[in-house]
Design goal:
Elements (H helix, E strand, L loop, with lengths): L16 E6 L9 H9 L8 E7 L6 H5 L3 E9 L7 E5 L11 E2 L6 H8 L7 E7 L12 H17 L8 H4 L28
Parallel strand pairs: 1-2, 1-3, 3-6
Antiparallel strand pairs: 3-5, 4-6
Helix pairs in contact: 1-4
């Protein structure tokens, strides 16, 4: 091993920062995290940043969280305020989240996933950016007020990650994209071989 000369500095590996959007894309505003992640995918972040659409994977997110030094989660949060309201808090600030910070209907909450990483390593510092839902009925589209709030949510994500949102204004001002399958000629037709009417 080569001996370091006096005054030589060790290069530190940059902190790995993960922006994780979670939620159920099929339940309207419950999918806000996935919408946020989809719209952040092509932002010109440094190499130590990663944007992940986590969906409702629950325990399956464990290995992703294990790789992060800093975690920023976007999710639907019921806080009792007006639809489109945005909450921001570090999960270490609330040992037992009250109703104000009760996350949505995922099989296992992200707070539990982060806590589990503590059995193997120091958990990443985790900030939740939650958005108050207006409608969580079956739909792949956000309700009006939550859709309007989406660019502001992205700006808060950038700010939380240490960026100046104004440097990304070009990206924040463009039309928001809809996550999910992209069809040019309508959705595909599934051939089942079954003829006649189908009863539910």
């Amino acid at each position: 091993m080569k001996r370091l000369e006096k005054g030589t500095a060790l290069l530190e590996k940059p902190e790995r920062i993960m922006i994780l959007g979670i939620g159920n894309l099929l339940l309207g505003d419950e999918g806000i995290g996935v919408h946020a992640a989809e719209n952040l995918q092509d932002f010109p972040f440094p190499d130590n940043f990663e944007v992940v659409e986590g969906g409702t994977d629950g325990f399956k997110l464990f290995h992703l969280v294990m790789e992060a030094d800093r975690l920023i989660v976007v999710d639907c949060v019921r806080g009792g305020d007006e639809p489109g309201s945005v909450y921001r808090f570090d999960i270490t600030d609330v040992d037992h989240p009250p109703d104000l910070f009760r996350t949505s209907v995922h099989q296992i909450g992200i707070t539990e996933v982060v806590s589990l990483t503590g059995t193997m390593r120091t958990p990443p510092r985790t900030t939740i950016i939650g958005v108050e839902p207006g409608d969580i009925s079956m739909s792949m589209e956000l309700s009006g007020r939550v859709q309007v709030a989406l660019p502001r949510v992205l700006g808060i994500v950038l700010e939380t990650a240490g960026f100046d949102p104004e440097e990304y204004r070009e990206y924040l001002n463009r039309p928001m994209v809809q996550p999910g399958p992209k069809y040019t000629d309508g959705p595909p037709v599934m051939e089942t071989g079954i003829q006649g009417d189908v009863e539910s």
